[in-house]
Amino acid sequence: MQSTMTNSSTKKAWLEYAARIGYSSRAVIYLCIGGLALLSVWGGSNGKTTDSKGAISFLSDSPFGLYLVLILGLGLVCYSVWRISQSLLDVDQHGSEVKGMAIRTGLFISALTHGALAVYCFKIVGVVTSSGSSSGAGGKKETLGSLMNLPYGQWIAVAIGAVVVGFGISQLVKAYKETYKKHIDFPGDHKILDGVSKAGLTARAVIFMVIGVSAVYAGLQVDASEMLSFSEVWNKAGQTGYSTVAVTLLAMGLFLFGVYSGIEARYRKVKV
Q1: What are the Cα distances from residue 176, in Å, to 30, 172, 180, 213, 266?
Q2: What is the DSSP string of the chain?
Q3: Averaged pLDDT score across all residues of the chain
Q4: Mean pLDDT, range 168-184, rounded to an integer
């Protein structure tokens, strides 16, 4: 009995470490994305900014950059482990109903995407050798194009886009129903938590919904080039008449999502 309790306690401790390290890594990435976006807007580059891989590359060019990227890669592995536990083990108790399974599917996809970012980090530092495959926006479009060549691939692409849109909508719901509070034991002023969380989640939701809609359109047109990447969303925003205001608000929102991730790293309730 005591041995079983000890093993359970050890499992919970490791999972909690993985979650907190993982959220910290996500915080670093979004703080970089938001910060670089703000610099790009006010530096006169018409709203052009970078994505997660660009933020990682930016870190690699800083002093001790390769060490920072290696640590970030390990942190992203931890985040993937945590996301898998949320999805497969249902540690947050989303359940097995349609809504719960949709959330858990999104968490599993998050595990895969952050795992891919971890591999990208390891490629930069030379821990993993590059296979020569495409990366970034071009790589995603090539992947989508290859998918469309499969039987029913067009509709699979549409479905993937719809899932991304659904994820964005879920982030808006999470922000304005304040469901994030049930997972965070925040000791400070909840007005601060609400302001940071709502701004951060909303900005990220907008980006994902635009990307998702573009993926649906690309599937319907059977043209992968119609799908927008993270950076291309920013470029489109920069071409509007309200580019400075719109992109500044989005950039600030993504920076605050980094702050929100930092809050989760410290105060997130981790259940096993």
Answers
A1: 21, 6, 9, 22, 22
A2: -HHHHHHHHHHHHHHHHHHHHHHHHHHHHHHHHHHHHHHHHHTTSTT----HHHHHHHHHTSTTHHHHHHHHHHHHHHHHHHHHHHHHS-TT---SSHHHHHHHHHHHHHHHHHHHHHHHHHHHHTSS-------HHHHHHHHHHHHHTSTTHHHHHHHHHHHHHHHHHHHHHHHHTTGGGGGB---S-HHHHHHHHHHHHHHHHHHHHHHHHHHHHHHHHT-GGGSPPHHHHHHHHHTSTTHHHHHHHHHHHHHHHHHHHHHHHHHB----
A3: 83
A4: 91
The DSSP string of 213-249 is HHHHHHHHHT-GGGSPPHHHHHHHHHTSTTHHHHHHH
User: Exposure string (b/e) for 223-242, b if CB count within 10 Å is 16 or more?
Assistant: ebebbbbbbbbbbebbeeee
**What's the predicted TM-score (pTM) here?**
0.85
